[in-house]
Design goal:
There is one protein chain. The chain has helices at residues 14-23, 48-63, 101-115, 182-188, 190-208, and strands spanning 6-9, 30-33, 67-76, 125-136, 139-152, 168-170, 175-176. By secondary structure, it is of the alpha/beta class. It has one domain: Maf protein, CATH 3.90.950. A seven-stranded mixed beta sheet has the order 2-1-3-4-5-6-7. The longest helix is centred in the last third of the chain and has 19 residues, at 190-208.
């Protein structure tokens, strides 16, 4: 019997791993996170696409396996697209070395609210962007992306999700993405869009692989 393939997801964030695993339910492969023994690459790309490709190639080389990497973030129009590719570390200078992800998320959200405190609601438009790259040790095999439009709220709402979810308001629903169930969020989210696209590509590539 052919061994079930394993694909590495370029993250140590358990929330992201769980979310993408849920989106890939029923996929013909196992998805695992990168181990603590591999140093994280320095992200030097100026775009989500560049960073996703950089991470996918780096971890594919480090593990010898196919690697799926995403670079995701928040673009706020009133901040000229910031935090953008620095979304995950927007307020890292306000956190102690080695701070947990939850601590960093709280600091990022606090900084975002502070920078937008004088911005009227109509000008708080923003979007979540996700770019996914799949690579093996030879190069990038596929890329996909997803986008969801919304607005930045004035206070955190909701207990689900992670990152900027408690502040990302979907005006048509009157809810933040942190107030949605995981299943409902995955249907509409930027990452959900990108993962659904790459899932089909992965199935085709794995079918074509020998052995």
């Amino acid at each position: 019997m052919r061994q079930r393939p394993t694909i590495v997801l370029a993250t140590r964030n358990p929330s992201k791993l769980r979310e993408i695993r849920d989106m890939l339910g029923g996929a013909p492969f196992d998805l695992v996170a990168t181990g603590d023994g591999i140093a994280e690459p320095v992200e030097t790309g100026l775009t989500f696409a560049a960073n996703a490709c950089q991470k996918a190639l780096y971890y594919a080389g480090a593990t010898g396996r196919w690697c799926l990497a995403d670079d995701s973030g928040l673009e706020v129009d009133a901040l000229e697209g910031r935090p953008g590719v620095t979304s995950a570390r927007f307020a890292s200078d306000h956190c102690p070395p080695g701070a947990q992800r939850e601590t960093i998320d709280r600091a990022n959200n606090a900084r975002l609210l502070e920078e937008l405190k004088d911005t009227p609601d109509a000008m708080r438009t923003a979007r979540f962007v996700c770019h996914l790259a799949l690579a093996d040790t030879r190069g990038v095999l596929a890329q996909t992306f997803g986008v969801i439009e919304g607005r930045i709220g004035r206070k955190e709402r909701g207990e689900n999700g992670f990152g900027y979810d408690p502040l990302f308001l979907l005006p048509q629903m009157g809810l933040t993405t942190a107030q949605l169930s995981a299943a409902d969020k995955n249907v509409i989210s930027h990452r959900g869009q990108a993962v659904r696209h790459v899932a089909g590509i992965l199935r085709n590539l794995l079918t074509a692989e020998p052995g």
